[in-house]
Input
Amino acid sequence: MHTTSTPRPYESKIVSAAELVDIRAKARAEGRVFVFTNGCFDILHQGHVDYLHFARQQGDLLAVGMNSDASVRRLKGELRPILPQHERARILAALEAVDYVTVFDETHVDALINALLPDVLVKGGDRKDWVCGREVVESNGGKVVLAPVAEGCSTTNVIQRVLELYARTGAV
Output
């Protein structure tokens, strides 16, 4: 594994929640459309990439709230995440579509959405009945946009394929 103490330029896109609130305020003052989405983003795959590109197209800048390791364990179980939060945050930050990444430790993202009040909140289209933060975003003049779902693209499916391959061949 290659490690380096030299920061990569994209690492400056990883910010605290407080910094993101300030970034949001500046964007609002400049008349820019601030888009927010969130998720675990464990083992990035094509579905994630398509989703983030769709989210970025909804405004002028895209901020991604990413669940911390502890938060992912509460949501997905003790065997997750596969990749630790510092790696997941760096991978997200390296994507051109993503302007900012912040890590949150809560199980649900309500507090961060309440602090940010994004102009646009993007969630996967598989969440039609319930979108965390919908009420606060819409009551503050924002909108919720449901992204198309990439069928068959999920971290669970990727993990399952790896396990099946290992079971068949004994090799990874």
